[in-house]
Amino acid sequence: MTAIDIFNRALGLIGHDREVPDGDDTAETPSTEYLRCNREWDGARLAVLSAHPWNFLMEATPITEGAETTEDISDDLLYEYDRPDDVLRIVRVTDGTHRTVDYRVAGGKIYCSIDEIIIEYTEDEEDPDNWPHFIADAVAAELASRIALPMSANARMVEATKGLAIKYLSDAMLQDAREMNRGGTHGSRYADSRN
Q1: How far apart are the first and last CA of the chain?
Q2: Dihedral of CA 29/33/36/41: which sign?
Q3: 41: phi then psi, degrees, rounded to nearest 5
Q4: Which residues pair with 82 in a beta bridge?
Q5: Is 134 helix (H, G, I), strand (E, B) or coil?
Q6: C-alpha dihedral over 33, 35, 36, 40, to 10 degrees?
Q7: Which one, of 158, 181, 171, lies nearest residue 13 by Cα?
Q8: Cβ atoms 32, 21 nearer than 8 A
Q9: DSSP readout, 44-86?
Q10: How many CB atoms lie within 10 A of CB 100?
Q11: DSSP class of residue 48?
Q12: Taking the mean position of all CA atoms in its chain, how far away is CA 60?
């Protein structure tokens, strides 16, 4: 799936009868449909990708080059680290034993109480071909909500597409949650004693 495919899905969601043709992104004079979709593309994509800690985007990186902070952030956040560029959303900061530690992000820095950390984060993925289908649906719906007013000039369409974008995002979060297991009761003495 390409960005153009998602543009066309978004146009279809608002009932627009013209599509963005293949190659319009490299045309000397691209279509109005392409220009409007492309203008909102990054905003729609980033809104969905940063809305949730998606399993397919999760990464973990150790950062050992912290420095004692000179900022007055907090009495216990004594170290600062540069926030990596490809980070959309920091999900958790842990120590070497996977225990969560307190942190704060401000001004492109991560402030923490220990001198070596592991950050768990979602990274940016610009290629829709690498997205699960439910993410593509959510981005198409978000894009539709952003282009609805300029493409249709219909306030009801704007409301309907915003509601649809919220529903698609909620459905995607539910689908993503089903692809993760945080453990169960196997081996639990309490669960075994009840049998």
Answers
A1: 49
A2: negative
A3: -60, -55
A4: 109
A5: helix
A6: 130
A7: 158
A8: no
A9: HHHHHHTSS--GGGEEEEEE---EE--S-S-SS--EEEEPPTT
A10: 10
A11: H
A12: 16
Q: Both tokens of residue 11?
A: 């146009």
Residue position matching structure tokens 């190659």 = 23
Match 């973990």 to its residue by tokens.
60
Identity of the amino acid at 73:
I
The residue type at 172: A
pLDDT tens, position by position, for the chain (195 residues)? 899 999 999 999 999 989 998 887 788 889 999 999 999 999 999 999 999 999 999 999 888 776 676 666 666 778 888 888 889 999 999 987 889 998 988 888 888 888 888 999 999 999 999 999 999 999 999 999 999 999 888 889 999 999 999 999 999 999 999 877 666 555 545 445 554
Determine contact, residues 122/128, Cβ cutoff 8 Å: no
**What local confidence, expressed as pLDDT, does residue 109 receive?**
87
- Amino acid identity of residue 167, one-letter, is K
- Alpha-carbon Rg for the chain, nearest whole angstrom, is 22
Return phi, psi of residue 65, to 5°: -100, 65
Cα 39 from Cα 131, distance rounded (Å): 21
d(CA 8, CA 127): 16
Residue linked to tokens 């075994």: 192
Q: Global pTM?
A: 0.82
